[in-house]
Model the fold of this input.
Amino acid sequence: MVADNASSKIYLFGGNDVEKYYNDLWVYVNDDWQVIIPTNTPITPINAFPSPRTATALAYNVNAQNN
Done:
């Protein structure tokens, strides 16, 4: 999980429940969680992210200015 203070958004990747690991990407904005589905990739959205995993780390480059 990582926070972008400039845009007041929180991003969450992956995780697990009792039976399954996940590789979904979510953003928390305007008091609501929304799933992010890549649209500018030649591969299908299901394969656009790293493999399902848990206990991951996420970094945000505040200087990148990519929106």
